[in-house]
Sequence to fold (151 residues):
Amino acid sequence: MAKSRDTFNKKEKEKLKQKKKQEKQDRKDARKSEEKSSGFEDMIAYVDEYGNIVDTPPDPTKKREEIDVDSIEIGVPKYAASEDDGASVRKGKVTFFNESKGYGFIKDEQTQESIFVHINGCLDKIQENDKVTFETEKTPKGLSAISVKLV
Fold:
């Protein structure tokens, strides 16, 4: 008796191929059998009052919210000066000051933030650990102390 040339592994691979082919044919038949409704009504989408896309039309009996047109701001609102923009005199302590370079930093007593100070903004000669009063101004790099006086 002659031995078959098909090994077990070859037979298993062939079975898998046939199974996949059959599954593919079943899926194809299922797609064809489904009814496709490609009517105009199925393609329409509506937007509800919250901006979500839904398939149901809006309810005409529902009361709409009225919006005051004048209350809508287009663009960036104008800058309103706040009380923190340097209008008030602040107190602080000089934490660092380099006389050769002419700049330093003052730690504000209330906010504990470090504020830059340049020698041009000083009215008195200051050193490290001095108690000072100052005003602030907004610069492109942040707050800067001006009108610095010793206490």
Remarks:
- The radius of gyration is 39 Å.
- The first helix runs from residue 8 to 33.
- DSSP finds two helices and seven strands in the chain.
- The mean pLDDT is 86.
